[in-house]
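Reading group handout, session on sequence-to-structure problems. Before we discuss, look at one worked example. The prompt was deliberately terse, the way you'd type it at a terminal:

> structure Deoxyhypusine synthase

The input record follows.
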Amino acid sequence: MDIKDNMSVLELVEQMGKSGVLGAGRMYRATKLLADVIQDEDTAVFLSIAGPLVPGGLRKIVRDMINDGLVDVMFTSGANLTHDLLMAFGGDHYRGIHDNDEKLCEQGMGRIADLYTKSEDFEVFEKEITEILSKISQKEKNLTIREFITALGNSVDDESSILYTAAKKGVPIYAPGMIDSMLGLQLFMFTQDHEFCLDASGDMHELSDKVFESKKVATVILGGGLPKHYALASNLLKGGVDAAIQVTMDRGETGSLSGAPLEEAKSWAKAKAGSKLVTVVGDATIIFPIMVAGAREMISKSD
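And the output record:
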């Protein structure tokens, strides 16, 4: 690889492409594939994000991709929804180093590696989300999870918010494990004295329609878990996805879904025979910004 002064991100990624099947080579192929599927009008891009990627700095990158029409469907965890809303309500994630978690708890601080949340921000979150739930439940007593997330997006006023932008752009967000989060906890508490119910299986009708309406589907998977499986399995009845990019730090030896190689999905008909698959092993908060910047530059140069 030839590194020069004042290189652009794309120039760096193209140099990485000279390193064969190692990590740098995978980075190039994933970036190229991302640019290809984004530019293909026949391909719907399904973005799956798991782990603390909103606290980890990807909030605006994902928001901008949705706003610019680069994402057609999104899958995520309840935690990322919670942290997006926390920031929409004026809260934040704070950087620092601390070696005493018991003391952090006493100080009302929650830790995510070297990032921190404040209990006072979550107190605002609880107040705001309860008011929003009250307004939503006055209009609807039964919603699918996707419909509920869209209603949340329509209830906040923050142009930097993923939920806000997805609602305005008509991009559906699916979060089948949403109840396993602070947002889910607040919903549970709200339903103790309010009539309101979420229909989890109802999302599958709409999601299946989107899969069958799409000529081709490409999944972009950051992390693993339930969002990864939902993004892939939703395409099972159509024979699988046509392309997929996976960024993960998990390993496949344990048989876990999160670390499973994308090629394994072919055995389940979650990825088609002949599908284009690229896995990059590493931290998505490092890899994905470079990948997106490189893909955007590729697209810009091809226009």
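Points for discussion. First: The longest strand covers residues 271-281. Second: Residues 137 and 194 are 8 Å apart (CA to CA).
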